[in-house]
Amino acid sequence: MFLDYFALVVLVFVLLVCFYGVIAIHDIPYEISVKRNHPHQDAIHIAGWVSLFTLHVLWPFLWIWATLYREDRGWGMVGKDHDRISQLEQQLARMELLMQQRPSASSSATAAAAEQPTADKEV
């Protein structure tokens, strides 16, 4: 008789641990997104609950979605050329600033080039 009650208590305990374990596991992608300061934290959390009701079919995709974003590099789609591109953008900004500071030099050079006769005009 004691073993019957003991088995019942063990069975209830195991079912409760499994139930709460599944709920804790479904929340892992949300915790990852909170740690990474993901812009879609709420959507990942809601999708985690939806995944709970669909037997965790969506859960691997939520894990991937949560781990793709990092605050320091964004979505991670930036290649090795990111530094080179930023250098070129800075160089272009400097050149535009120089062009704005000396508009008369460029217009006088254009006017002088227009006044010079070319070989096509002489023939």
From TrEMBL:
<keyword id="KW-1133">Transmembrane helix</keyword>
<feature type="compositionally biased region" description="Low complexity">
    <location>
        <begin position="104"/>
        <end position="114"/>
    </location>
</feature>
<protein>
    <submittedName>
        <fullName>DUF3302 domain-containing protein</fullName>
    </submittedName>
</protein>
<dbReference type="InterPro" id="IPR011223">
    <property type="entry name" value="UCP028770"/>
</dbReference>
<dbReference type="Pfam" id="PF11742">
    <property type="entry name" value="DUF3302"/>
</dbReference>
<feature type="transmembrane region" description="Helical">
    <location>
        <begin position="46"/>
        <end position="66"/>
    </location>
</feature>
<feature type="transmembrane region" description="Helical">
    <location>
        <begin position="6"/>
        <end position="25"/>
    </location>
</feature>
<keyword id="KW-0472">Membrane</keyword>
<keyword id="KW-0812">Transmembrane</keyword>
<feature type="region of interest" description="Disordered">
    <location>
        <begin position="100"/>
        <end position="123"/>
    </location>
</feature>
